[in-house]
Design goal:
The structure is a homodimer of 355-residue chains.
Chain A: H1 29-43, E1 55-58, H2 59-63, E2 68-76, E3 82-83, E4 86-87, H3 88-101, E5 105-117, H4 122-139, E6 142-151, E7 159-169, E8 185-188, H5 194-203, H6 220-229, E9 235-238, H7 243-255, E10 258-262, H8 270-279, E11 292-296, H9 301-309, E12 318-324, E13 331-334, E14 340-342
Parallel strand pairs in A: 5-6, 10-13
Antiparallel strand pairs in A: 2-7, 3-4, 5-7, 8-11, 8-12, 9-11, 10-12, 13-14
Helix pairs in contact in A: 1-4, 3-4, 6-9
C-alpha cells in the first residue's frame, strides 16, 4: 500500500472498475467517484450536499410539520442481500421510515452510512442504491447525507447499511409504549411472520421451498391514514426482530398492563404456519417488516380497523386481543383448543441477520 | 437455533455472560439486557427513551440555537479498537461532533448504531460504551437513540459503530466548501498526521515503535471560540481520511480556486515525519482526527489565529498557505528546497480502517 499521491490525468471519468477495492474507502478520488457514481446519482435531491460533511435543513420548514422532531437509527445486516419481496436497500429505507411513522412522525429525511467489503461487485452496490432511492422516493423521504467505508475482504460480510431518520410529529399526537390502558383493543394490519419465513427460505440452508415473500413495506401511508381516522391511537410499533410477541411484551411491561390475544384471531399465512410447524418455530416470534401492532381505545377500534382495511397494506387488518388489568407485563394467548399459554419475551437464540 | 420462547423466571438480573452471543441481537430479552446494561446505563440522559424506537426532540428548543438543522452520519470501523490517544468509542463521538461543528453547527444529539461480532467480550463493549459516554458528556451532546445488531463470528470484525448527529446553525453563519476566495488565508490548528501514524504503529505490522498518539479530539469548543472571534469564517473541514491534501483539493475544486501551501509552514511532528520517511508516506495524506483546515478572509487571519492559539487544541495553529486565482481546483506546495509540487487528490490505495 502506498498513500503517496500518484499524479494522474484529471477528469478521467467515473468508475472504471467492476469491484470495490479498499481504495474506494480511502477518502480520495476513487471514493469520490464511487460515491458520485453509485450513491449521489441514485439519491439525487436538492438537499443532498456531497461537497459538505453535513446536510442542512431549514428549521422553520421542519416546524411546519409539527412540534417535535423524531430521530431514529437502525443498522441493516440482512443475509441474503436480495430475497423474495425485497433487498437490504429497500429494507434499510422501510425499516427506518417505519420506526419514524409508528411514533406518529411524518418521515422526512434520512442519512445512509454503508460499510462495504472489499471485492463487492459494483453492479450489486448499484442495485442496492437504486432500490434505496426508489423506496425513499415512494415514501416521500430524501436521503440527504451519507458515509462510505470499505473494509478488507473478510472484515465484514458484503455490506451493512445504517440509516438514520428524522421526521416531525404534529401537535396533539401522543403515542407511546406506556400509554395502553385496560380495555384497549390490540390490532395488527395483516398476516404475521412473512419476513422471517422468507429470509429463512431464501438462505436455502433449510432445504425448504416456500412461496412466502417478505412483507417489507413502507407503512407511513397506512399509518397516516390510521392517524387521520383515529388521532388518539395509544401505541404503534412495527413488529420486526422478535415478532409480535416481543412488541406485546414491551407494551405490557411499559404500560404495566396485561395483554391477552386469541390464537384464532391471529392471522398467519397457511404457508408460514406449515413452515413453522415443520421447523418447530413459533410464528409469534418471527420477524415482520410490514406489520404493526396497534393499541386503541375500545371506542376507536371499529374506526381504526376500517381505516386500516381501506389501505392496501391493511386489507387483512384485524383485532387480535385486548389489554386487561391482569398481572402487569404478562402476555398470554387463548389457544385454538381453549387453553391459555404465556407468550413470554424471547429468551433463547434468535435467527441472526434477519434484518 | 430455536426461536420458540422458553418460559423462564423473570427479572433474573442483567447480563450474566462474559461474551456477546447472537441471542444478544435477537430482539428479545438478551438483547434488552445487553442494551440496558451496556449502553443505556452508560449513555443515561433525559432524552434517551429505550422503550421507544425513536427519540423525540422539542423543535422549539432546537430553534433557540439557530435556524438550520445540521445532520451528518459516519461509520467507524477503525482497527485496532484501542490505540494510543483514543479508541473506537471516542472516535465515533468526536468524528461526528466535529462533522457538525465544522459546518458551524452547535452539536446537540447523536444516535448510535452498532454491529457487533458474536464472541466479543462484554467488558470490551462496556469500555467502548463508557468511552462514548464520557466523550459525549464532555462535548455537551447526548446520545438519544440507538440500535444493536449482532452478526455471527466472522461476519464482521469485532465492532462497527455508526453515529449520526444533529446540531443547529445560528443565523448568519455561512460556511461552505464553495466559499473560498482568492486572497483567503488557509490555517490549521496544529500538527498533521498524528492519527494516521498512531493507528499504523498500533497495528504493529510495521514493526515500528513510535511515541505518536492519535490527535482524536472533540473540536467543537475550539470551533466555537473561532466563530465567536471570526463569524465570517469561509470554510472549515476536519482533515480525516485522505488528510489535508484531500480537504484542500475538495475546497479548491468546489470554490473554483487554486491553493498554495508552504512546506516550511506546514506543522508536522518530528516523529511523524521520520515515520513517514521510513515508510515512504506523505504526511499530507495521513488521517487526522483533531485537526481542521480553515479558510478565512485575509483581514480576519490574525484574529482567527489568535483565537485558535488561545485554545488548548489550537496552541500550534498556524497559517499554511493561501487561496489564489490560479487554475481552478489546483493545490500546490512550495517545497523546502524552493520548488513547487502538485498536491493531487489521493489516487492510489489508502490505509484501510483508519477511522
Amino acid at each position: 500500500m502506498s498513500i503517496v499521491a500518484r499524479p494522474k490525468p484529471r477528469n478521467l471519468g467515473k468508475l472504471m472498475v467492476s469491484h470495490v477495492t479498499v481504495a474506494h474507502g480511502g477518502g480520495g478520488k476513487a471514493m469520490k467517484d464511487l460515491i458520485d457514481d453509485v450513491f449521489v446519482s441514485a439519491f439525487d435531491n436538492d438537499l443532498l450536499a456531497p461537497l459538505e460533511d453535513q446536510a442542512r435543513l431549514d428549521l422553520a420548514a421542519l416546524a411546519r410539520h409539527g412540534d417535535r422532531l423524531a430521530f431514529t437509527t437502525d443498522g441493516y445486516v440482512v443475509d441474503p442481500l436480495f430475497f423474495p419481496g425485497g433487498d437490504i436497500g429497500k429494507l434499510a429505507i422501510c425499516g427506518t421510515v417505519n420506526d419514524l411513522a409508528v411514533g406518529g412522525a411524518v418521515p422526512l429525511h434520512l442519512s445512509c452510512a454503508v460499510v462495504i467489503e472489499e471485492g463487492m461487485a459494483v453492479e450489486t452496490l448499484r442495485a442496492i442504491a437504486r432500490s434505496m432511492a426508489a423506496t425513499a422516493r415512494a415514501a416521500g423521504v430524501s436521503i440527504v447525507t451519507g458515509d462510505t467505508k470499505v473494509v478488507p475482504r473478510g472484515a465484514c460480510d458484503k455490506i451493512f447499511i445504517t440509516t438514520t431518520g428524522i421526521g416531525v410529529i404534529r401537535p396533539g399526537l401522543e403515542i407511546g409504549a406506556d400509554r395502553a390502558r385496560p380495555g384497549d383493543i390490540v390490532l395488527v394490519n395483516g398476516r404475521l411472520g412473512d419476513h422471517g419465513a422468507a429470509i429463512l427460505c431464501a438462505r436455502g440452508d433449510m432445504a425448504l421451498q416456500s412461496p412466502v415473500e417478505s412483507d417489507c413495506a413502507d407503512l407511513s401511508g397506512l399509518i397516516a391514514a390510521l392517524l387521520a381516522a383515529v388521532p388518539g391511537v395509544r401505541f404503534m410499533r412495527d413488529a420486526t426482530r422478535g415478532g409480535i410477541a416481543t412488541v406485546l411484551n414491551e407494551l405490557a411491561a411499559a404500560s404495566r398492563v396485561a395483554i391477552e390475544i386469541d390464537e384464532t384471531a391471529t392471522p398467519i399465512d397457511e404457508g408460514v404456519r406449515g413452515f413453522c410447524e415443520i421447523l418447530g418455530l413459533d410464528p409469534l416470534y418471527l420477524a415482520n417488516e410490514g406489520k404493526i401492532v396497534i393499541a386503541v381505545a375500545p371506542e376507536d377500534a371499529a374506526v381504526a380497523l376500517a381505516a386500516l382495511r381501506a389501505h392496501p397494506l391493511g386489507r387483512d387488518a384485524c383485532a387480535i386481543g385486548k389489554v386487561t388489568a391482569g398481572e402487569a407485563g404478562r402476555v398470554s394467548m387463548n389457544t385454538l383448543f381453549g387453553g391459555r399459554r404465556i407468550v413470554d419475551m424471547l429468551v433463547g437464540e434468535q435467527l441472526p441477520r434477519i434484518c
